[in-house]
Amino acid sequence: MRKKTIVLLIIVISGIAGYNYIYKDHRNIEKEKAAFTLKSTELSNEFLVSSSDSEKKYLNKTIEISGKVTEVDNNTLVIDNNIFCQFLNPISNSIKTDAVITIKGRFIGYDDLLEEIKLDQCSLSKN
Amino acid sequence: MKKFIYLIALLSFSVYSQGKYLTKTGTVSFEASVPSFEEVKAKNDAVTAILNTDNGDFAALILVKGFRFKNALMEEHFNENYAESDEYPKATFKGNLNGFNVSSIDGNSTFKVSGSLTFHGKSKEISDINCNVVKTDKGLELTGNFSVTPSDFDIEIPKIVSKKIAEDIEVSFKFDVIKK
């Protein structure tokens, strides 16, 4: 009897663990600690020097960037003309061009066509 | 001084002759679902696309890490084992909308697209894709779909999961390009 309960318990636990593995949650970039925190100009300069090396360095990493907004749309904004940030949620109306903000997002790659640094899953950092 | 005027004339001429339409938030999604198994589907809505309306030249750039799946583990496997996005972070398309003429578009026009699609470091020539072009308030909307196979891009699907992933992968795209 005791053996049976132990076996059953193991099956249930491994079942739950397996389920949690297969259906695990997505990364939560908003709650993650940023791997790099820097100014928009510093980041842009690194990509000017070598876009491929910088791309490798930052790819899939959570970064926090502060700089001046140069373009705002529904759920995307551009910092310093060349850092494109896509937000998960619509951007609040209070953010206008020329505002200086800090955002956190995941770097997904360098766009050679438009020479832009692209981030997704962005959120505003609370200062 | 004369040279300078020529230069200005040349520059302004090239600016006017270039009809460039672009988007930074184009959508590309693919689906390789098999009925009765979990859906294999991902969407990327930060795709850059540029259309030159003078000659129909078209280019798109997709950052592979930007493909989002419902299932986080599937997304991880896609990036690590199939697309190998650390090594090949970009997918590109370079081609042409055959016989494109912006003035001929009224309501809804269809053009054949041909060009080369690069993914996973491998290029494939594709042709005869139908692309619908609709005039919108701000620019043009391009939509269409086509299918590819993983082997086109040297991607091997392990036997153990091959039943759950369709052999033909349906790719669909939507680009709302705006004049720049």
Keywords:
heterodimer, A: 127 residues, alpha/beta, 5-stranded mixed β-barrel, 6 strands, B: 180 residues, alpha+beta, Lipocalin, 8-stranded antiparallel beta barrel, 3 helices
Amount of helix of chain B: 10-25%
Low-confidence stretches of chain A: none
The name of the CATH architecture of chain B is Beta Barrel
Order of helices and strands of chain B: HEEEEHEEEEHE
Strand content of chain A: 35-45%
Structural category of chain B: alpha+beta
Q: What's the alpha carbon Rg of chain A, rounded to whole Å? A: 20 Å
Q: Kindly report how far apart the N and C termini of chain A lie.
A: 59 Å
Q: What is the helical fraction of chain A, as a range of percent?
A: 25-40%
Radius of gyration of chain B: 19 Å
Strand content of chain B: over 45%
Shape summary of chain B: elongated
Q: How many extended strands of chain B?
A: 9
Q: How many β strands of chain A by DSSP?
A: 6
Low-confidence stretches of chain B: none
- Coarse morphology of chain A: elongated
Number of domains of chain B: 1
Average pLDDT number of chain B: 89
